[in-house]
Amino acid sequence: MSGFSTEVIDLRAAREALWETAPLVHCLTNTVVQALTANALLAVGAAPAMVDAPQEAGDFAAVASAVLVNVGTVHERTAEAMRLAARSAGKAGTPWVLDPVAVGALAYRTALAAELVELRPTVVRGNASEVMALAGAGAGGRGVDSTAGADDAGRAAVELALRTGGVVAVSGEVDLLTDGQRTVRVGGGSVLLTRTTGAGCALGALVAAYLAVTDDPLLGAVAAHAHVALAAERAARTAAGPGTFAPAWLDALDAVDGETLATADVRLTA
Amino acid sequence: MSGFSTEVIDLRAAREALWETAPLVHCLTNTVVQALTANALLAVGAAPAMVDAPQEAGDFAAVASAVLVNVGTVHERTAEAMRLAARSAGKAGTPWVLDPVAVGALAYRTALAAELVELRPTVVRGNASEVMALAGAGAGGRGVDSTAGADDAGRAAVELALRTGGVVAVSGEVDLLTDGQRTVRVGGGSVLLTRTTGAGCALGALVAAYLAVTDDPLLGAVAAHAHVALAAERAARTAAGPGTFAPAWLDALDAVDGETLATADVRLTA
Amino acid sequence: MSGFSTEVIDLRAAREALWETAPLVHCLTNTVVQALTANALLAVGAAPAMVDAPQEAGDFAAVASAVLVNVGTVHERTAEAMRLAARSAGKAGTPWVLDPVAVGALAYRTALAAELVELRPTVVRGNASEVMALAGAGAGGRGVDSTAGADDAGRAAVELALRTGGVVAVSGEVDLLTDGQRTVRVGGGSVLLTRTTGAGCALGALVAAYLAVTDDPLLGAVAAHAHVALAAERAARTAAGPGTFAPAWLDALDAVDGETLATADVRLTA
């Protein structure tokens, strides 16, 4: 369990550091999920800023605490802003997350994501189809849903992590995260997360927030996944359906403190 | 009542087919309502995907189960994506819905909508002003609100349906839907729908979802309108105001099953 | 207290005029907050319309009751639409609001906002950093959050108001509003407003709505701030966290009537 023998304490410390630091997370993300993403960041104590004009994205990424690049509704202008932000983050040593929404299913964004991967994102977060497509291991899904399980993508995740030198996180019933050496599984969560548009995209933003307050990108990514899963379980207990789940989940993101986060279902498996 | 003598069974079957099939609905819609639209689709059991880059829209429309084109915040790039998606859907025989938001009030989108109508949408869904403007029968409203009643637009709807060879649905206190031969009225609903931004736009997406699982476009459009109306009545009973109505409505969209849908206020009137 | 000796009656009358008139508010605003903004306008009884294509923005601003220009996610196309809308509103004598989100922190939008200020917005609404940057009095904040207090910006607000001939409103723990001659403070509210993305942006839209129904821009701006603050207090009493606060706040925006608004913490201080 080397690297995670102290995981309980680390998760607690990460959560507390998030409250104390309130990192500024620069999000270049799709227009469907911008509001939920910003609210999720505010709920955990981070400060969101959505800046996706090519005239501003590079400069802003350089001063942000962390950057999220999500290609969900990407087009020519925002693709250019993403390139500039990713390069700027890399140059400044700022951690950044790539969320390759629907990569594999659509040629334009698949080419863009391949280009962004070369800029070595600190974390890639996606579902199994997306990660496999990005690793060149699969033909991709039918859109934003994954058609493969998280475990199927385990090998592809390790390969991709070794290629980027960063972390790859695969969302599924059980999440799988790896830095190429260590592999961690995060359980829990709720099926209602899959019925809330943007929950996965917001998770990508929370990964970015945690990267800003932890030295170990794998720990940061794990903390974000555990935070989302625990909040989802809590929200599922009070929600009357998929509509009331979303506000309850934001309430729960706020309510999950360091002590609670330390109880998450996190297992080092390799 | 030919064509609707079995309407109770049909509505139930349509609802159940939606759950079983989980159709992929490709939405090119306005940025104000993307999140509510995606959540409404998820709530009824469909799979939303918002793809509006010209580089991707045509290819994606060809593989989607149904397509929604909503011109609410259209501009040059998205107009081009809409043209490509509509043409691609037509070529592939994929059903598609045109929602002519504020057409008649603004010249740019009115010209675009006239162009899209020539591509023969399976369903046009709008309010009375929009449908009348599209049919060339009126001068249009003052924006997104309708300034005419659904019944006033009845004649325009029939004319437009005969022109497109499809269905025209006019939202109002009582909704009116026609394929040029048969005219159906759907009652019920709640005034709170008019105080929730994007409820009408989400209805357009649900029409697309139902088109993917029914052979009769009029039945598909009626099922979507009935589903929205029943869910609104249910949500209005628990909501404390227009803000809590929206999540309650999503919960209710999920909760309305085939048996419930079969109780909708649906009348064949011509 | 000249100009505000009758403030209680004026606030009540403004609220009632809003319900009766249902002004059409044309919003050119950022994509993160469009849905909340539209829902807030609907909740208070106004009619929102988001139109930001250059082909339409000028024409639409001329027929709207009021216009909001918010530069939160501005880029080349929407900047052009904003210029056209602001010029058109000015020409038509239509009141318009400028919300200089993150101005001071980013060069591109700072230049745009400086240009828009020359077109003399009826009201500028921002936080202390933004107002100070716009007045040339500060170096700006780190993004969308203010790093200065509302009172620090008081002098800058007066200077800016004298320059535009309009009103400047500075949001903070206590809001400060001035037309260069009179200065008003509005207290109350809830910290949960700062944890809801777009609450400040929605306030800008409500200012526009109130401008459409009052002759005195300072009174209109004060009414909107008081309305938002009272609704926030009410919502904070029932919300379980930052997620359930947003729908409760929309409910409360609807519930605050003229009598309630007249109880707001509004003080003429200069």
TrEMBL record, chains A, B, C:
- Catalysed reaction equations from the record: 5-(2-hydroxyethyl)-4-methylthiazole + ATP = 4-methyl-5-(2-phosphooxyethyl)-thiazole + ADP + H(+)
Please name the pathway.
Cofactor biosynthesis; thiamine diphosphate biosynthesis; 4-methyl-5-(2-phosphoethyl)-thiazole from 5-(2-hydroxyethyl)-4-methylthiazole: step 1/1
| Gene Ontology annotations of biological process type | thiamine biosynthetic process; thiamine diphosphate biosynthetic process
What molecular functions are annotated in GO for this chain?
ATP binding; hydroxyethylthiazole kinase activity; magnesium ion binding
Q: Which cofactor does it need?
A: Mg(2+)
Give the protein's biological function.
Catalyzes the phosphorylation of the hydroxyl group of 4-methyl-5-beta-hydroxyethylthiazole (THZ).
* Protein name (database record): Hydroxyethylthiazole kinase
Question: What would be the name of the gene that encodes this protein?
Answer: thiM
